[in-house]
Design brief:
By secondary structure, this protein is an all-alpha fold. The chain contains eight helices and no strands.
Amino acid sequence: MTRTTLGHLAPAWALIGVGALFTSAVTRLGSRGVSTLSEGLSPGQWVVLVLFTSVMVYGEGVLALQRKWVPRLLDRARAVRDESLGLRILAPFYGLSLVGGPVKQLLRGWLSTIAIVTAVVVVRSFSEPWRGIVDFAVASALAWGLISILLGAPGVFRSAEAEPSSESVGGHRDTGREAHPPDEIDRDHDARKVPE
């Protein structure tokens, strides 16, 4: 395969890998949640289920995944086509911001992964029906995220020339100004202050 062919396959591999991870989690957690629901809940537990699922779908599904995380994933899926062969092979990890980015971005990716693993371990210790209620709510939020990935994926392939956003891939968006580290910007701003 040529470098160009691998470059075009890498975005698909990134999205398929991440999509498979989401699908697995939704299926596993969702089936456990549905099983809990089929065993029956008290009226108070139904209220908790509806409220917690609503909070998870809106807070995590819409605000965190759809509006922030998925656009970053899609930008990184676009960007991976121009990366080294090693990063293209690791495209799903690249999409998850676990490899191939600035330290701050990689740190955020790894801390998010550690937080998710920790949450999974904690929720496993919950007794039923609470574990099933949490699993159902989380599966619902992840399903929303998966739908967002699927709806955004065609744009990755239609916009082969589109530049990813600067925050997503760690570069600086060309604004016509030279990029400065934050401390230089602060010093420049302080120097322009007019004394009162």
